[in-house]
Design brief:
The protein has 195 residues and is α/β, with parallel strands linked by helices. 29% of the residues lie in helices and 31% in strands. It has one domain (2-189): BirA Bifunctional Protein, domain 2 (2-Layer Sandwich), CATH 3.30.930. It is built from four helices and eleven strands; from the N terminus they run βαβββββαββββαβα. Helix 2 crosses helix 4.
């Protein structure tokens, strides 16, 4: 698995470069993972019918409105995918394993895909599949500005608030989160790291 560590990168630039990486995977069949964060931005996937009251960027992923900002770790998967259901199940396993080590109260909601503590959403998932390769991925709120994230309910869900690991008393850095999740991806997908 080839890993790209981009740090903080503008959302539109990241999407353009993710598309280029997606085309590489189609050609050489080598899985690639992008790890990054974005400056403050709201993005909307397939749920475009609502007005959100904030400036948004439309994307080609599934899902509703998502907030990105610094302090959030994002994992964009450009993986060869034969069966989307199997791929998605493995992604869930990666993050379930990671979160279960941090706090036993973190759970996955199948109906409203994401990881939560009570009614606070700390991680969102959104994917697209083209030509046998995945696009987009998973965001984890490590230590974000919750006042900004609260401008819109996470994924437009009523009664759901944004949360973060640090706000829940889980004192962990973005670097630690990213390293642990990379290890978990290697374990679950049977990959080894390349940079």
């Amino acid at each position: 698995m080839i890993v790209y560590r981009w740090g903080v990168v503008e959302y539109k630039k990241a999407m353009k470069e993710m598309r280029e990486i997606h085309s590489f995977v189609q050609k050489d069949k080598k899985n690639r993972l992008i790890v990054c964060s974005h400056p403050k931005v709201f993005t909307v996937g397939s749920d475009r019918k609502k007005e959100w009251g904030v400036d948004t960027i439309y994307t080609d992923r599934g899902g509703s409105v998502t907030c990105h900002s610094e302090g959030q770790s994002i994992f964009y998967f450009c993986f060869v995918v034969e069966y989307p259901f199997v791929f998605y199940k493995k992604v869930r396993e990666v993050f379930s394993n990671f979160f279960s080590r941090l706090n036993k109260n973190i759970y996955f909601d199948k109906k409203n895909p994401g990881f939560y503590i009570e009614n606070r959403k700390i991680s969102s998932l959104g994917f697209r599949y083209e030509n046998g390769v995945s696009l987009h991925g998973v965001s984890v709120n490590v230590d974000v500005d919750l006042s900004f994230h609260s401008l819109v309910p996470p994924c437009g869900l009523e009664g759901i608030k944004p949360g973060s690991l640090v706000n829940e008393g889980i004192l962990i850095s973005q670097r630690e989160v990213e390293e642990e999740i990379l290890k978990e991806i290697c374990e679950v997908f049977g990959e080894s790291l390349q940079t």
